């Protein structure tokens, strides 16, 4: 499989690239600065941004899947991931690739019929911009043309470089509800999240929908 990965130098993107490469896939890592990409067989780098429509059309030509592992909040230039969604959808319709997005947990619901995680009183204020921005991306994907095959993977409540965890080789899959274990912990390590993400590429089970994974 030929994979184009935006955000390949980040926490989630780097682990997804490593997992995909371990399965023999070709990965083209895209970032504003590709100097952080490791040297690995099957991995090449392209400097660029998803906010450049001509670049997106060029770099995604011939791709089987295009993956987005970038923050949702505004970057230094003020542009958000949401602003690039129309460009990504147009490229997907032109080239016929599958679009996969590393999403956020804030748009998950705490219980059936309950509020979203982002709308609960204890949700940290410092994460609301990122969570709200990613919720907007999910809404835009849900409104995408029917001929675009996309999936959006929400991590659990605890996910990031501050809690990398250890690879277990296992994970649970859910839908729109936040997953927690019997002790109330909602977490997954970076390697197991990447495992779940690449499993979806290799054996597609979620089309035009969001799902979540956790331990």
UniProtKB/TrEMBL annotation:
Pfam assignment, any one: NAD_binding_10
Residue ranges of the TM segments: none
Signal peptide bounds: none
InterPro entries per record: NAD(P)-bd_dom, NAD(P)-bd_dom_sf, Polyketide_Oxido-like
Domain (NAD(P)-binding): residue spans on this chain: 7-202
Protein name, per record: NAD(P)H-binding protein
Species of provenance: Saccharopolyspora gregorii
